[in-house]
Design a protein that fits this description.
Radius of gyration: 18 Å
Structural class: alpha/beta
CATH architecture of the largest domain: 3-Layer(aba) Sandwich
Order of helices and strands: EHEHEHEHEHHEHHHE
Oligomer: single chain
Number of strands: 7
CATH superfamily of the largest domain: NAD(P)-binding Rossmann-like Domain
Number of domains: 2
Length: 265
């Protein structure tokens, strides 16, 4: 299937590893030029090198990078100084830390909302009008399955990402965007084999005194697929949402969790 995005320009945030890299890789393999953004310069360079060496990436595909914190004004300025217009934008930022809501002060909440709600909104604001003028645009926000099934210790994430979800539900359905072939959707990952998941599992292992392997196996058993997801399959789903074939899908929350969410809707 030809996704129809060869030669399009994609901005992928949090792209040095994990789900962000999976999205960047899938888009590049479809012939989209990609600009990868992440805070860690060394890991980001390694990701770029990996894509440039990937035999599945078509010849002539451009892979660029900017080492910056996309959640800051300066970081976003650095990105748009490199390139103003994008056809595809993948928003992604590290989730807030887990904990007890009684311990979170105003600064903790502001940081969570700034990184996981306001930053994606700023990126949407900066790019959708240009997309509409050109008659093509795809924005995919990487959020969390906690939007559908809140997790008690992830209150900061639950709140900030749910705010973004509500915003997207409205703006994606405006005729000025939807009628101009500009879509905005959210991808909601469940348990994926990423550094963040392993970090959470390591914390649980220290707290309980159990080996991390036991913690990981127990977590897998809570997923009907009996495994964690991987970045390749997440990226493939992202690439489809960015394709010409997904032009009638907008304002949606696409849950990728191996069947863990127990609800009907």
């Amino acid at each position: 299937m030809d996704f129809g995005i060869t030669g399009k320009w994609a901005l992928v945030c949090g792209a040095s590893k994990g789900l962000g890299f999976g999205c960047a890789q899938a888009l590049a393999r479809e012939g989209a030029h990609v600009l990868l953004v992440a805070r860690g310069a060394e890991a980001l360079q390694a990701a770029v090198d990996r894509l440039k060496a990937d035999p599945a990436v078509p010849a002539g595909t451009t892979v660029e990078h900017v080492a910056a914190d996309i959640t800051t004004v300066a970081g976003r300025a650095a990105v748009f100084a490199r390139r103003k217009d994008f056809d595809i934008v993948i928003t992604n930022a590290g989730g807030p830390p887990p904990g007890d809501f009684r311990d979170w002060d105003r600064d903790a909440w502001i940081k969570a909302v700034d990184g996981n709600m306001l930053t994606p909104i700023e990126l949407i604001k900066a790019t959708v009008d240009g997309m509409a003028e050109r008659g093509f645009g795809r924005i995919v926000n990487i959020t969390s399955s906690a939007v559908k099934a809140p997790i008690d210790i992830l209150g900061l994430s639950n709140g900030a990402r749910s705010g973004l979800t509500g915003f997207v539900a409205g703006v994606a359905r405006t005729s000025k965007l939807a009628s101009r072939n500009v879509t905005i959707n959210n991808l909601l990952p469940g348990a994926f084999d990423t550094h963040r998941l392993r970090g959470t599992m390591e914390g649980a292992a220290k707290k309980t005194g159990q080996p991390i392997e036991s913690i990981m196996e127990a977590r897998k058993k809570t997923v009907p697929a009996l495994r964690f997801g991987n970045a390749d399959e997440f990226g493939a789903t992202c690439a489809f949402l960015c394709s010409q074939h997904a032009s009638y899908i907008t304002g949606q929350n696409v849950l990728i969790d191996g069947g863990a969410y127990p609800g009907t809707y």
